[in-house]
């Protein structure tokens, strides 16, 4: 009996190099240097996953975000000599997808990320900050462009920055709050209420960050503050909730990470409509505040969804080549 050939599972980079405890969540398969400060990083997107979506006619932005996020530690450790155990702290992150990201029915498989270092800072001989431009390409077609800045802190410096809050075992997270249910999670790109990052407050346009420290993706390993990926997911869910019942899909995002979001205090997420962009696309401003201090801010751009094709944006997307440089805050 003839059996169809099964493609071999790709070999992934070491989980420690992308700061993951679960090797099954590693997305990157390798890297190479193409010039002094340019690189090609290869990735493999899963055919099926408990959280990410690759087969619904649109790019799951959190899959894109996690792929880009894994590039940071890989290049820091492998290309720039940052020791394992050092902490990478996000300053800014901006991305925008292209129309091609909405055309492929199946986005699983091989992906390339073309990375250019825009600037690097050193403290002595150690890398202390890195600004990157990243283009995500599949089958020679650009799917998204991103810019980001991160800082690198040695363990001792990180502990001073955390001021006694830098050990996960010392933090007692708030009890898990109930998920927001005013919009079905499927309309936000998620299959389950367990993946909801918002809790209701009873006020329009205002939610509490839902922190589930047992979530296998966001809390892959013990941490002492809310992970950046959780903040991105919560911001995307809040933006889509603001445009409901219109079917809108996020197509771009600009973020500023100002302070750590702690696990033991409520974090309120506010969303407000902003003027449309120059292409007529909707924009939503997101802020996250904790103890009356703004910790995180984002502007999210959304485009209409074609009827009957979940998640497929109708309007055009600005290509990454014309993205304005982000304003980085050290």
Short note summarizing the structure:
This protein has 330 residues and is mainly beta. The protein has helices at 61-78, 155-162, 228-243; strands spanning 28-35, 38-45, 87-97, 109-123, 126-138, 141-153, 198-200, 206-209, 248-257, 268-274, 282-290, 293-304. Residues 307-330 have low confidence and may be disordered.
Q: How would you characterize this protein structure?
A:
The radius of gyration is 19 Å and the shape is globular. β1 (28-35) and β2 form a beta hairpin. With 330 residues, the chain is mostly beta strands. It has helices at 61-78, 155-162, 228-243; strands spanning 28-35, 38-45, 87-97, 109-123, 126-138, 141-153, 198-200, 206-209, 248-257, 268-274, 282-290, 293-304. The chain has a twelve-stranded antiparallel β-sheet. 13% of the residues lie in helices and 34% in strands. It contains three helices and twelve strands, in the order ββαββββαββαββββ.
Largest sheet, if any? 12 strands, antiparallel
β-strand amount: 25-35%
Report the end-to-end length measured between terminal Cα atoms. 62 Å
Rg for CA atoms: 19 Å
Report low-confidence residues grouped into runs of 5 or more.
307-330
Sheet with most strands: strand arrangement:
1-2-4-5-6-3-9-12-11-10-8-7
Cα shape = globular
Number of helices: 3
Q: Key features?
A:
330 residues; mainly beta; 12 strands; 13% helix; 34% strand; disordered C terminus
Task: Map the helices and strands.
Elements (H helix, E strand, L loop, with lengths): L27 E8 L2 E8 L15 H18 L8 E11 L11 E15 L2 E13 L2 E13 L1 H8 L35 E3 L5 E4 L18 H16 L4 E10 L10 E7 L7 E9 L2 E12 L26
Antiparallel strand pairs: 1-2, 2-4, 3-6, 3-9, 4-5, 5-6, 7-8, 8-10, 9-12, 10-11, 11-12
């Amino acid at each position: 009996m003839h059996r169809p050939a099964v493609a071999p599972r790709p070999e992934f980079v070491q989980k420690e190099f992308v700061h993951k405890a679960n090797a099954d969540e590693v997305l990157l398969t390798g890297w190479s240097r193409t010039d002094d400060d340019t690189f090609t990083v290869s990735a493999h997107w899963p055919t099926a996953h408990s959280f990410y979506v690759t087969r619904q006619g649109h790019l799951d932005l959190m899959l894109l975000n996690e792929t880009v996020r894994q590039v940071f530690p890989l290049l820091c450790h492998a290309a720039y000599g940052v020791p394992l155990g050092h902490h990478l702290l996000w300053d800014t992150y901006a991305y925008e997808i292209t129309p091609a990201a909405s055309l492929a029915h199946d986005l699983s498989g091989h992906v390339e990320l073309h990375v250019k270092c825009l600037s690097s800072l050193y403290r002595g001989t150690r890398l202390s900050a890195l600004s990157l431009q990243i283009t995500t390409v599949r089958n020679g077609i650009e799917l998204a462009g991103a810019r980001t800045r991160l800082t690198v802190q040695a363990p001792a410096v990180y502990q001073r920055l955390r001021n006694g809050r830098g050990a996960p075992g010392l933090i007692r997270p708030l009890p898990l709050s109930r998920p927001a249910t005013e919009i079905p999670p499927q309309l936000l790109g998620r299959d389950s209420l367990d993946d909801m990052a918002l809790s209701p407050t009873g006020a329009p346009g205002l939610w509490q960050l839902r922190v589930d420290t047992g979530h296998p993706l966001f809390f892959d390993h013990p941490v002492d503050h809310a992970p950046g990926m959780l903040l991105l997911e919560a911001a995307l869910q809040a933006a889509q909730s603001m445009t409901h019942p219109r079917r809108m899909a996020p197509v771009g995002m600009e973020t500023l990470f100002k302070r750590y979001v702690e696990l033991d205090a409520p974090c309120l997420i506010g969303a407000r409509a902003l003027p449309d962009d120059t292409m007529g696309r909707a924009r939503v401003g997101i802020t996250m505040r904790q103890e009356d201090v703004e910790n995180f801010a984002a502007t999210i751009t959304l485009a209409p969804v074609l009827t009957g094709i979940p998640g497929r944006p109708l309007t055009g997307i600005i290509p990454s080549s014309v993205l304005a440089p982000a304003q980085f805050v050290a």
